Amino acid sequence: MNTTQKILNRALLNAKKVTINKDSKIIFFSDLHKGDNSYADDFAHNLKIYNVALLDYFNRDFTYIELGDGIELWENKSFEPIYKAHETTFNLLDQFHQKNRLYLLWGNHDMEFRNPILVEKMMRSIFTPKNIIAKQTYFDLEYHESLLLAIENTDENIFAIHGHQADYMNYIHWKFNRFFVRYFWKYMQKWFEIKDPTSPAKNYKNLIKVEKKMNQWIMNNQNQMVICGHTHRPRFPDPGDIPLFNDGSCVHPQSIIGIEIVNLKISLIKWHDQFDESTGQNKTIKLILEGPTELNKFL
Questions:
Q1: Which end of the chain, N or C, is surrounded by fewer C-beta atoms within 10 Å?
Q2: pLDDT of 186-199, one tens digit each?
Q3: What is the residue-wise DSSP string for the chain?
């Protein structure tokens, strides 16, 4: 058994169990790469679109699952300037958290969050609890490597993960890659528009390699349905194909892409701005790119 298979097997074994049913409403986003609102902050371009979408999902009682790389900690050494740059967005996430409708996974760009002590330290750097209730509210935030969404009254489940587990350099040697991105490629991108070779989103050969490894693991595990991110390439298979889904990213040009599960049906969706002739202004709207398709066709 190769290293990738072992890593994914361990992630499946240790996944946090979450039960879903026909009443569950879930939105998956990943790869936001929230930065400090500088030239390197890719998320800043889609900030308004994302916040409109997130508020809509909160008001419609969705559960929010972030499949890793929510925060850009390769290009930024500290969380505090990121929080200050995107405080409105973090406040929206906190509303989901208060309603127990928030699940956060760590990816390769925020892999530090696999350490719960560091997560609490991060929160304490921003919030000072005034009493025990406030302490419990702010410091029970958890990051997970993976989730196993178990469908109520069935033996079926969905494995949710960031996806860098199938990317050896970005899982095992993520600190090495972080060093080059932080001190080298970040500036090469700015000055010469050179693409980061450590990222599957900017390296097609690496992207295909990651997808092949994920496909192989799925076939080795009785066609286990997987929803992931990491490559930034949206993926919505046809029923009967290998059930590997990818929710895209939130740093696509002028749009964000994600996956919804509603009434045990799955859809690939896109939020973007569209000019409204009646008002003469842009309006943020949602498009369904694929689906909705019944989950049982993939399980």
A1: N
A2: 555 555 455 544 45
A3: --HHHHHHHHHHHTPEEEEE-TT-EEEEE----B--SSTT-GGGGGHHHHHHHHHHHHHTTPEEEEES--B--SS-S-SHHHHHHTHHHHHHHHHHHHTT-EEEE--STTGGGGSHHHHHHHHHHH---SSHHHHHHHS---EESEEEEEETTSS-EEEEE-SGGG-HHHHTSHHHHHHHIIIIIHHHHHHH----TT-TTS-HHHHHHHHHHHHHHHHHTTT--EEE-SS---B-PPTTS--EEE---S-BTTEEEEEEEETTEEEEEEEEEEEETTTTEEEEEEEEEEEEEEGGGT-
